[in-house]
Design a protein that fits this description.
It catalyses: L-threonylcarbamoyladenylate + adenosine(37) in tRNA = N(6)-L-threonylcarbamoyladenosine(37) in tRNA + AMP + H(+). This protein is an alpha/beta fold. Helix content is 42%, strand content 18%. Bound molecules: adenosine-5'-triphosphate (ATP), magnesium ion and fe (iii) ion. Magnesium ion binds next to loops.
Length: 346
């Protein structure tokens, strides 16, 4: 079965074709980052307009790339939430209409289920049950995964998501949006002994929830302090980037380890934009080896938003006989735990 996947929940138009026999055939991503850059964040109305403009041409491109015609497709999967309403509407309308015209099933996919299953597109795959750390621009959640659609929320951020904290800190020192990768790059030149200390929020008490907003305030205080001392130079920026990255990574690692131990599981997957962070990946590899556990993640372009994860997640549910009705329903807010089990009738 060949499934066309459309991702349009935020500022990336991601289109892919996943073949349930041959695997991923092709994928393309068009990012709107440049359009939103001057505003320092995503402007919803601009995002929707751009998805409307880019989705159809990109569908033609992936079809040509895979040497397929529209009539070769067996189903269409599109992101139906959570995300920006207008952006979701663009992808859902195109996906739904195309499926109707071709007489094939369509399925609305949960964006975070897409992220969660992205590591399954790689050669090294975990086997369920496992723990998933979803770390993106809008989410920081620890989830126990027993099967597709059997998700138990173990903990989540009470305020900012980890990616959001990266982005806000980056903005404070004048780095472009989205700031996570820029902080990570700056941190490479940081000195770990520079003496900048940040807390590891909520790690000294039991539980699996997170809080990153205090860390952001600590970052701002340290920046002001350096400005007052006339010490806000290139080396300081690298040092503070490293200290901040280490604080977020340590906090995530401590909670992942705790979740594995609590649930008696040995496999962790990390997914969403922040899972592309090299320090997070390597620290988890080192720390989980100590408890005989392992970590799985997708290649960098499948950590951030992409169409491949939507095509894959959609394909799994379509294979199980699930599909969405003809009327369009998108959900800007949508808890992952509300999803049906893969074997449930919907
Ligand atoms: P959500 O998936 O919660 O709706 P989103 O789709 O906006 O949010 P993603 O596209 O999955 O989020 O991820 C983007 C986030 O990942 C941004 O906050 C970005 O700064 C962060 N990010 C990307 N690469 C890195 C990196 N190497 N290190 C740290 N953060 C990163
Ligand atoms: Mg994005
Ligand atoms: Fe995302």
């Amino acid at each position: 079965m060949k499934v066309l996947g459309l991702e349009t929940s935020c500022d990336e138009t991601g289109i892919a074709i996943y073949d349930t026999e041959k695997g991923l055939l092709t994928h393309k991503i068009y990012t709107q980052i440049a359009q939103h850059a001057e505003y320092g964040g995503v402007v919803p109305e601009l995002a929707s307009r751009d998805h409307v403009r880019k989705t159809l041409p990109l569908i033609d491109e992936v079809l040509a790339d895979a040497n397929l015609k529209k009539s070769d497709l067996d189903a269409v999967a599109y992101t139906s939430g959570p995300g920006l309403v207008g952006a979701l509407m663009a992808g859902a309308t195109i996906g739904r209409s195309m499926a109707y015209a071709l007489g094939i099933p369509a399925l609305g996919v949960h964006h975070m289920e897409g992220h969660l299953l992205a590591p399954m597109l790689e050669e090294k795959q975990p086997k369920m049950p496992f723990i998933a750390l979803l770390v993106s621009g809008g989410h920081t959640q620890l989830v126990r995964v027993d099967a597709i659609g059997q998700y138990k929320l173990l903990g989540q951020s009470l305020d900012d998501a980890a990616g959001e904290a990266f982005d806000k800190a980056a903005k404070m020192i004048g780095l472009p949006y989205p700031g996570g990768p820029y902080i990570a790059k700056l941190a490479q030149d940081g000195n770990p002994d520079a003496g900048i200390k940040f807390p590891r929020p909520m790690t000294d008490r039991p539980g699996l929830d997170f809080s990153f907003s205090g860390l952001k305030t600590a970052f701002l205080t340290a920046v002001h302090d350096a400005l007052d001392r006339d010490a806000f130079n290139d080396q300081f920026q690298a040092d503070i980037a490293l200290a901040f990255e280490q604080a977020i990574v340590d906090t995530l690692v401590i909670k992942c380890r705790r979740a594995l131990e609590q649930e008696g599981l040995k496999q962790l997957i990390i997914a969403g934009g922040v899972s592309a962070n090299k320090r997070l990946q390597s620290q988890l590899e080192i720390q989980l080896a100590k408890i005989n556990s392992s970590v799985f993640y997708a290649r960098p372009e499948f950590c951030t938003d992409n169409g491949a994860m939507i095509a894959y997640a959609g394909a799994q549910r379509l294979l199980a006989g699930q599909h969405s009705p003809l009327n369009l329903s998108i959900r800007a807010r949508w808890p992952l735990a509300d999803l049906p089990d893969i074997n449930e009738e919907i």
